[in-house]
Amino acid sequence: MKLTIIGGGGFRVPQVFEAVAADDAPVRIDELALYDVSASRLETIGAIVSRLAQERRHVPAITTTTDLEEALRGADFVFSAVRIGGTQGRILDERTALDLGVLGQETVGPGGLAYALRTVPFMTRLAETIRRVAPDAWVINFTNPAGIVTEAMQRVLGDRVVGICDTPIGLMRRAAAATGSSADAIAFDYVGLNHLGWLRSITAGGDELLPRLLESDASLERIEEARLMGFDWVRAIGALPNEYLYYYYFTREATARIRSAAATRGEFIDRQQSAFYSAPGDDPLETWMRARHERESSYMAESRDDDEERHESDVDGGGYHQVALDLMAALASGRSATMILNVRNNTLVPQLPDDAVVEVGCVVDVDGVHPWSIAPVAGEMLGLITQVKSAERLIIGAVHERSRELAWRGFAAHPLVDSVGVARSLVDRYGQAFPEIGELLTA
What we know:
This protein is α/β, with parallel strands linked by helices.
């Protein structure tokens, strides 16, 4: 089987290689094609992958190319993890919002909507190319904002596009472990959107385990999301929230911390990656490994006190590369897997359009991805889901119709933008900062 990685010069691509080349990998990849627009980044990552290959017994044939159609031809799986605008674009996403007094974050809030305006046009063109060159391929999307991008790509490729994120699966696994169970031994109810969801039930042998977990400080201490949000809050809502809900529940605190920090997350990543790619050193693999651990250890630092560090199990556990591999294995081998994925809503959440993308539990097998039924969504959870989804769909519409008005409405509809006037200013400033956005929003 052939796996094509769009964004093959990306910093985390070696982790994908480690997963597919592992001795116990659940599916064998015969050919790995790395595509990127940057030949120099491909060269750096290719050198690291070649070093890793020396330590593996099962190594796929590896190609690197800047020719998209060449990379896609014959692909069984296409994995997308690109950053349109690069890390400099992320900095502008964050700083533009912060300068207007609202949250500046990569995927949540106005920064995520600006990121989508830059990214959806490219990803739509990518989907059209896949439909022409590799129509039978499964597309696994990790490109952020993953929910919006997956929904836009599904309009071209249908259900063969699946969005993945490691955060909800990590939450489910941590919660299972905290109850003394394994992820394979429980059933669960999870619902939401990408970077916005809740684990609302955990059962084993017909017994509901979540209430007992929420009552126990010792159990909650093992769950990063509970530590971020506070034990009192997760008990109050009766659910375990995705870690990105920190930005919705503690917007003022998060914004203040980001503003007071010496650098935004985008500025940190930009400095780190610029240094890495410009001078990977005599041992690029060792340099990459140090940078990767530093990056993971500092993840969501604004949500923790200055002297608080992430638990080592949260730093080194799982990751999106393992989620992608598990998904490919289930689709290719016939061995079913239980996962949390970004898929077409249909009637799962009746208050949302059928073609909206939601994040829910699924069973995956050789016949495809099968979302399971969820408990009804109501109250503040439903309110937040519907409001954010309306903003996302307005942004997709703005891209397709080249409409500044729809973009303005999309920003104004988002709960983390507190003023129609600020929404207009965001659209104007992002249009000035990014010529591609300014050119896009002509109507």
